[in-house]
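We append the chain.
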Amino acid sequence: MTETETIAYDVVVLGAGPVGENAADRAHAAGLSTAIVESELVGGECSYWACMPSKALLRPVIAQADARRLPGLAPANQGPLDAGAVLARRDDFASHWKDDGQVQWLDGAGIALYRGHGRLAGPRAVTVTAEDGTVTTLTARQAVVVATGTRAQLPGLRGLDDVRPWTSREATSARTAPGRLIVVGGGVVAAEMATAWQALGSRVTLLVRGKGLLSRMEPFAGELVGEALAEAGVDVRTGTSVESVTRENGTVVAVTGDGERIEADEILFATGRAPQTDDIGLDTVGLEPGSWLEVDDTLLVPGTDWLYGVGDVNHRALLTHQGKYQARIAGSVIAARASGTPLDEAPWGANVATADHHAVPQVVFTDPEVAAVGLSLAEAEQAGHRVRAVDVDFASVAGASLYGDGYKGRARMVVDLDEEILRGVTFVGPGVEELVQSATVAVAGQVPLDRLWHVVPPFPTLSEVWLRLLEAYRDN
């Protein structure tokens, strides 16, 4: 290992995924010299193994499901998807796992890229170890931003490494569809990947430890998605745990808590995420390696005046768009503090807004889609709000009928009865992903219900569900 030089920047960012890129871009745009460190591909998990390839896999599935609900589209109604064409398009969306374009963007933006493993080396210092063993030390005059994201968390089953299980990475980058696939988990990754690979020709068995899918969302969301998966041919088993896994002559054998043996060609564990902080030098600044980074609403790690944690590593919301929002806030905060500009840390501050995490939007790209923002009914009640849930079936919405026969969907708004605002909104149904932004505006902006009456939805669209929800609130 050869140390070469020490180079000073105003800001050093660990992790060049979308979150790290946004933090670096915002800091550099404010006139701060900025470096970013990445050990894998510039563009991160989202670009190559998560958001982009997974949605590229799912879009044809949803398009075909929409087509099957409509008359006059016979070719789209027949037969399975062309798996080869879908996977080839997926490869395009993942840039064939090459980061040339992302690197070009960094170069054009004037952000210095250091390839290698980055570790904190005490306050305001980062060492970067390149593949050839060369070590470069970067010092930060203003801030170090940790944006290293998360990795798949596998269960502690004996011999699991020998099985070579899929994680979300293998599930989004596989070259062919396995004949039989076991999916373990009940969250977003499990539901989406079961949806995709079933449609691409795999015989999927979905093993869910809990009572149902998408347990962190409104109960009807998981119920409707689970019903649709079963109708599509997925063997959905709730209340089922995996006690052991082996690979015998190339075949995966999973044994459930009931002693049943389930065989497959591959097994995907979608059982949670862990922070990528175990080997980034947290111990050199008095923090616990492998831990989530606690931050305040300016994304600063308490007890420091230079260390920031943005995106998944702070565990506020494991979503790319929310991490990018946090990164924009952090970049602006760092720039303001560097220039001595006072911060307006009140919500919706005119100078530098603090990071809000009460109106987080999310879409699950299954068939039907799930789109939600803010608190579920259970979360709102647990938080101490006096609330009421208002439910509407999409059958009452004229725009839903245009999606074809058999449209199944439901909407819920969680109303704060004391403040007459919305604490949360959930939509389930085909096409609802485009409704979530209007719900996010209503929840994040704390729009009074009496003002929402004057937001007129166009006819005939799915957005008429807003009028139906308001009418249900008024009439009951």
About this structure: Residues 109 and 322 are 22 Å apart (CA to CA). Residues 320-339 form the longest helix (20 residues). The mean pLDDT is 94. The two ends are 71 Å apart (CA to CA).
